[in-house]
């Protein structure tokens, strides 16, 4: 696990001890900033703030980011500009922020769970637990195996029976190599003995387009709810700890002997070394927007979790996932040799 360094504190003469302690204590309640420096900063924000989204336009993550943007902009008094940075299994946006040398709060990102998986599989120029400020967690994806409504498979057992009888002919799409869906697909193949072809895409919207277009046989991802509600997809298996309340007849992988829960939280991150007062401003603006009706409607549309976490709790979850994801990858023989 990455080592945690603690940067020295720079306290400008104009910043009194009382003001410093007050700002630091307030920020500690909401944000976790490994190696953070506390420094004086002019009123924030004084210009638009960029929110980097890790998946393409039209994805579930993009939809909720744009739903939150108006209320966050109102709270900040400056526009929150949503910018899509898809790629690298959803880690492109976080990677940009992690390598930033200007932790002024004007560029933040949504980090998906793959941030704690991809660095175990390939070399990246940052360390997730060291090079980021964890501002807050706010949601999570529900992963499931979905097939076209027009397909002949009514149950998971029928799907697997066909896959085993026709090795190499079933294409399962996910939102990228090294993604949460990729690991779940590998686990599915490992536990059932089915020969499944993993087809990676750049994000949820692209894999769903391929699914609707008939280019893949199934999707194992977190943005499937919309196609199911439109009558274009049939959910065969949920990779959740318990059955989904909305779809109580869909079994979980665990029930069928596949010991795999695809936990996939998302949250806000910024560069390391952010001013705690700025972290608190961003946190409070986003937390206040979580009650917005449009945002909550999108949570329901995409079957996303309502899962607020303070910055400290988000960082604690990140630490746990860093360990858990490596263990899963080891079990699936997905780590580099």
TrEMBL record:
In Pfam terms, one family for this protein is: TctC
InterPro entries with a match to the protein in the record: BUG, Bug_dom1, TAT_signal
Q: Is Zinc-finger given among the entry's keywords?
A: no
Q: Which Gene3D superfamilies match?
A: Bordetella uptake gene, domain 1, Periplasmic binding protein-like II
UniProt keyword annotations, A-Z: Receptor
Q: By its UniProt entry, which SUPFAM superfamilies does this protein fall under?
A: Periplasmic binding protein-like II
Keyword presence, Protein transport: no
PANTHER family the UniProt entry points to: BLR1237 PROTEIN (PTHR42928:SF5), TRICARBOXYLATE-BINDING PROTEIN (PTHR42928)
Family that this chain belongs to:
Belongs to the UPF0065 (bug) family.
What is the official name of this protein in its record? Tripartite-type tricarboxylate transporter receptor subunit TctC
What organism does the record attribute this protein to? Quisquiliibacterium transsilvanicum
């Amino acid at each position: 696990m990455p080592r945690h360094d603690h940067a020295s504190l720079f306290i400008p003469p104009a910043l009194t001890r009382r003001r410093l302690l007050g700002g630091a204590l307030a920020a500690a309640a909401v944000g976790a900033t490994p190696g953070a420096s506390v420094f004086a900063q002019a009123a924030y924000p004084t210009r638009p703030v960029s929110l980097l989204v890790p998946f393409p336009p039209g994805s579930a993550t993009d939809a909720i980011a744009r739903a939150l943007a108006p209320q966050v902009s109102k709270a900040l008094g400056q526009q929150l500009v949503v910018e899509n940075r898809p790629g690298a299994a959803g880690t492109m946006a976080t990677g940009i922020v992690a390598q930033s040398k200007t932790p002024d709060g004007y560029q933040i990102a949504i980090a998906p769970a793959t941030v704690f998986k991809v660095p175990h599989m390939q070399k990246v120029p940052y360390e997730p637990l060291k090079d980021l400020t964890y501002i807050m967690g706010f949601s999570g994806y529900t992963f499931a195996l979905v097939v076209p409504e027009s397909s002949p498979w009514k149950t998971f057992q029928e799907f697997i029976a066909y896959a085993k009888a026709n090795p190499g002919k079933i294409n399962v799409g996910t939102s990228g190599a090294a993604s949460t869906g990729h690991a779940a697909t590998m686990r599915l193949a490992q536990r059932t003995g089915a020969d499944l072809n993993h087809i990676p895409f750049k994000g949820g919207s692209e894999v769903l387009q391929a699914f609707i277009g008939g280019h893949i046989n199934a999707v194992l991802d977190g943005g499937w709810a919309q196609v199911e509600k439109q009558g274009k997809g049939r959910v065969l298996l949920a990779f959740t700890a318990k059955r989904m309340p909305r779809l109580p007849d869909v079994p979980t992988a665990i029930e069928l002997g596949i010991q795999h829960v695809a936990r996939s939280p998302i949250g806000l991150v910024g560069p390391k070394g952010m001013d705690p007062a700025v972290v608190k401003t961003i946190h409070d603006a986003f937390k206040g927007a979580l009650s917005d009706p449009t945002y909550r409607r999108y949570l329901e549309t995409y079957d996303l979790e309502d899962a607020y976490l303070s910055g400290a709790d988000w960082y604690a979850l990140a630490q746990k996932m860093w360990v858990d994801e490596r263990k899963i990858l080891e079990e699936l023989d997905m780590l580099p040799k």
